[in-house]
From TrEMBL:
Recorded catalytic activity of this chain's protein: D-ribulose 5-phosphate = D-xylulose 5-phosphate
Signal peptide: none
NCBIfam families per record: PRK05581.1-4
SUPFAM superfamilies: Ribulose-phoshate binding barrel
Taxonomic lineage from the root: Eukaryota, Viridiplantae, Streptophyta, Embryophyta, Tracheophyta
A Pfam cross-reference name: Ribul_P_3_epim
Protein name (Swiss-Prot/TrEMBL): ribulose-phosphate 3-epimerase
């Protein structure tokens, strides 16, 4: 069984640290490729693509945000042929206006930000995603506390912890997010729920073990994959990441 998925992060020009003013050209261009997928695989429901993965596995999702957009069609075609889940992170304001378009385009998982600057009515938007047949995820920026999603935790299929400030690729991993991941895993256990816990930002073979040990089971890797000569080896390196052996004194 393959343990990969494709992650598509859709955003716009960053404004005031979050500001995600949707721009039609940027928003729709990366997703136009997917309309053929629903025609080709119309009888395949989103849940069947996602549910084939066990949460005991570590899933690595190469982020298209860090891909070579000049060759985006080739890279996305490989995902279509493999029939892998398409995990879409809507880093935009008022995502509820665009959710139907992305699900129609082929999104299997749609994640929206919990911050009120982005999603005014989070509960309603999560319900909207699920009612349209996709899996629903919520996203927290590094400075957003877990309390912001506690009231929808029993509804969502995925929680995405941003380990960099969103808006552009190639940033360094924010170490404080490791504890947030651990705290989220404990919160889920206390509530008797088991969503995917996904981490996005600065994940590399050198540090992936930290988030895996903390309880994450889905890792988004952009620059670490698309910046490597061999994508497959880069993904293997992330999944095989181990804590360095202690040095004897």
């Amino acid at each position: 069984m393959s343990t990969s998925a494709a992650s598509l992060c859709c955003s716009s020009t960053q404004v005031n640290g979050f500001g995600l003013r949707p721009e039609r050209s940027l928003l729709y261009q990366p997703t136009s490729f997917s309309f053929s997928r629903r025609r080709t695989h119309g009888i395949v429901k989103a849940s069947s693509r996602v549910d084939r993965f066990s949460k005991s596995d570590i899933i690595v999702s190469p982020s298209i945000l860090s891909a070579n957009f000049a060759k985006l069609g080739e890279q996305v075609k490989a995902v279509e042929l493999a029939d892998l889940p398409l995990d879409v992170h809507l880093m935009i304001v008022e995502p509820e206006q665009r959710v139907p378009d992305f699900i129609k385009a082929g999104a299997d998982i749609v994640s929206v930000h919990c911050e009120q600057q982005s999603t005014i009515h989070l509960h309603r938007t999560v319900n909207q995603i699920k009612s349209l047949g996709a899996k629903a995820g919520v996203v927290l920026n590094p400075g957003t506390p877990l309390s912001a999603i506690e009231y929808v935790l029993d509804m969502v299929d995925l929680v995405l912890i941003m380990s960099v400030n969103p808006g552009f690729g190639g940033q360094s991993f924010i170490e404080s997010q490791v504890k947030k991941i651990s705290d989220l895993r404990k919160m889920c256990a206390e509530k008797g729920v088991n969503p995917w816990i996904e981490v996005d930002g600065g994940v590399t073979p050198a540090n992936a073990y930290k988030v895996i040990e903390a309880g994450a089971n889905a890792l988004v890797a952009g620059s670490a994959v698309f910046g490597a000569k061999d994508y497959a080896e880069a993904i293997k390196g992330i999944k095989a990441s181990k804590r360095p052996a202690a040095v004897a004194v």
